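As the work plan foresaw, our protein records have gained a structure token line. A representative record is set out beneath this paragraph:
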Amino acid sequence: MKKTLMALALSMAVSASCFAAGASGRFATEERTADALVDALTGSTGYEQVSKNFSKGLKEKLNADAFAKVKEEIRKQVGAIKNVNFVVLNKQYDLQKGYNGVDELVYFGTVSKEKFARIFVSFAEEGGKPMVTGFQVTPIEPAKQQAQEKK
């Protein structure tokens, strides 16, 4: 009886991990791609490396010159972002239609002691592969009351 229960539990564990393999593989691909984009936005990685994973629509809107301008605007408006960490994966879900294939990865980075940045990277499947469809960098400053409480 114990052997049967152990065999049943083991087979359930193996089958459960197989069902999650597809989702984890897509997430791993998206995370590597988003990490490269974040590195390109905050560091010295070039447009050619990161644009390989852009959707057709994003490539049409964002060429190398426009990408350089976006990086410069981020530096001017937000500042130099460092210590960027992945925070959450959002899967877009429609109650009527179900999962629509759009994922959004959210990162937070430090700009200064009391200023932070939130980075969104959006993905959709194109040609069987998750491609970057858009990104956004938003400055975040804690509310003044919270900052005073910390002092």
